[in-house]
Amino acid sequence: MTNSSFCERCRTRDGHLCTADLPLFRELPEEVQESLCRYAVRRRHDKGSLLFLEGDPVNSIRIIEAGRVKLCRIDSDGQEYIMDVLSDGNSIWESLFVEDAVFTYTAVCLTDVSVCEISKDVFFGELDRHPGIERYLIALLSKRLEAAKEKALLLSIRSPRVRMAGFLLDRIRRFPEPEIHLKLDEIAASISLRQETVSRVLRQFEKEEILQRLGQGRIRILSRDGLRRIFTSGDA
Cyclic nucleotide-binding domain spans which residues (predicted)? Predict the structure, then answer.
């Protein structure tokens, strides 16, 4: 763990705050961003370690500076359900406003991970000094709620092809990177399909030149239009 009063890494080479690139903070006044950075604590976690466990108290905002983190739950039968896989720039903060909140899922590091933490007290102090921030946060929470509704709708789709197309479209919308980094078991646990089914659908999509599998859990999307066609038409 490294603790800095105002780490130089909080500013990029062109001089602007790194928080300006994060969806949670980029619309906040620069003075607020500077204050939050001043009290941020950077922690490093090894691959396979836990950021927190289901049931742990929610007492800070966690920002994924680098690496990939799996948010998951284990049901009574021991079956894992992956709620999300986060990467650079994503944050965990939604339950911060719930009194005595605890995490309803566990966060597992899929790679070595660097996380910046901002305590609940520090963040709430900024809210007290800048009450206008609350409207922005309410808007963000509303977007997260809509995303949760869309995920529930996706899981209700019976066709594996359509469900997979919707999942991949959501990933490339939320993470506009050249490749998707997810293993078969991670995709399967994310959309409640068997690994064999996921593998079969990916082979179909590759044959249809919709995507390319690059190995080691890497997928490159070749045709967003192809995914949209399958998802919107209900092509099974």
Answer: 24-144
Segment (H or E) for 214: strand 211-215
CATH number at residue 203: 1.10.10.10
User: Do 176 and 134 share a structural domain?
Assistant: no
Please compute the mean of the pLDDT values over residues 6-11 and round it to a whole number: 51
pLDDT at 96: 86
Question: Measured between alpha carbons, how far is residue 80 from residues 72, 88, 106, 170 in Å?
Answer: 7, 23, 11, 21
- The whole-number pLDDT of residue 158 equals 93
Other Cβ atoms less than 10 A from the Cβ of 75: the count is 8
177 CB-near residues (< 8 Å, 6+ apart):
87
> Do 129 and 176 lie in a common domain?
no
Q: Which of 118, 144, 170 is the last residue of a domain?
A: 144
Pairing between β-strand 113-119 and β-strand 41-45 as defined by DSSP bridges: antiparallel
Q: Is the pLDDT of residue 207 over 90?
A: yes
- C-alpha closest to that of 89 among 115, 111, 108: 115
CB neighbourhood size of 77 (10 A): 5
pTM over cut 0.90: no
Q: What number of other Cβ atoms are within 10 A of residue 113's Cβ?
A: 25
Cβ atoms within 10 Å of 36's Cβ, excluding its own: 24
